């Protein structure tokens, strides 16, 4: 990818809070990561977050209920082998993020760092939220990467984003007790009406800001959707001591 293309994408991220980098990962990389993710999912290798753990709309009532073993996320992707490590610290990702941060990018292994799955039937709906809601850093200029390992649309649980929401100062009252952006408030509805869901092909990457409001529907297709998600911050930023953000080692991208 040319320097001018990266610069244009960085400018788009700054302006609207997200940008899609088409065919950012090669077909061979995507195929290898998808195969590895499927193997990990079939083996149910821990650590795992189950849909029943979070109780989002559409999730099974408990792990003992029908569909209770439905996986939501394969956690700690960076520790699941060299393929995942190579992607998370790849030169292409490092170059792109260095252009955004104007600093050395650092991978957080405490947040995201997972294979995100969306299953038919028991894959839950995710309400509008900002990722920064439970994160604790000295600054809030963090960026996540969302790599599509298959085709993603609104119908199979693809992400919706609200453009320019990352630059808005919302009040605490616009969120519920779990820090989800309230769809029932008249003042929030004009924002939600602006939402877009980019269609993603395998290898496309969404770079999105930690303050950008995003959400996802349930998966109405017949296939499990797989995505690989990581979060990065500039080296000049630090996770706050004693918080979850500082609970796992970070990885600078040299």
From TrEMBL:
Superkingdom of origin organism: Bacteria
Q: Does the keyword Oxidoreductase apply?
A: yes
Q: Which SUPFAM superfamilies match?
A: Clavaminate synthase-like
Cofactor dependency: Fe(2+)
* Alphabetical list of Pfam families matching this protein: PhyH
List UniProt keywords, sorted A-Z.
Oxidoreductase
Q: Name one GO molecular function term.
A: 2-oxoglutarate-dependent dioxygenase activity
Q: How is this protein named in the record?
A: Phytanoyl-CoA dioxygenase
Record the organism: Bordetella petrii (strain ATCC BAA-461 / DSM 12804 / CCUG 43448 / CIP 107267 / Se-1111R)
């Amino acid at each position: 990818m040319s320097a001018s293309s990266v610069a244009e994408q960085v400018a788009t991220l700054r302006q609207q809070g997200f940008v899609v980098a088409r065919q950012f990962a090669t077909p061979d990389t995507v195929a290898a990561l998808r195969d590895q993710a499927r193997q990990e999912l079939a083996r149910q290798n821990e650590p795992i977050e189950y849909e029943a753990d979070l109780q989002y709309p559409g999730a099974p009532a408990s792990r003992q209920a029908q569909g209770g073993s439905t996986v939501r996320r394969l956690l700690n992707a960076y520790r699941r082998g060299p393929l995942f490590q190579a992607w998370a610290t790849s030169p292409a990702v490092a170059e792109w993020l260095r252009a955004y941060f104007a600093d050395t990018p650092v991978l957080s292994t405490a947040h995201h760092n997972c294979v995100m799955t969306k299953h038919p039937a028991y894959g839950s709906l995710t309400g509008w939220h900002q990722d920064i809601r439970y994160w604790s850093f000295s600054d809030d200029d963090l960026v996540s990467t969302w790599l599509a390992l298959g085709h993603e649309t609104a119908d199979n649980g693809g992400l919706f984003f609200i453009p320019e929401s990352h630059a808005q100062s919302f009040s605490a009252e616009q969120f519920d007790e779990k820090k989800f952006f309230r769809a029932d408030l008249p003042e929030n509805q004009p924002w939600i009406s602006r939402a877009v869901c980019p269609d993603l092909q395998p290898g496309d990457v969404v770079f999105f800001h930690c303050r950008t409001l995003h959400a996802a529907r349930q998966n109405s297709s017949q296939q499990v959707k797989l995505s690989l998600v990581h979060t990065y911050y500039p080296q000049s930023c630090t996770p706050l001591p004693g918080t979850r953000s500082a609970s796992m080692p970070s990885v600078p991208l040299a």
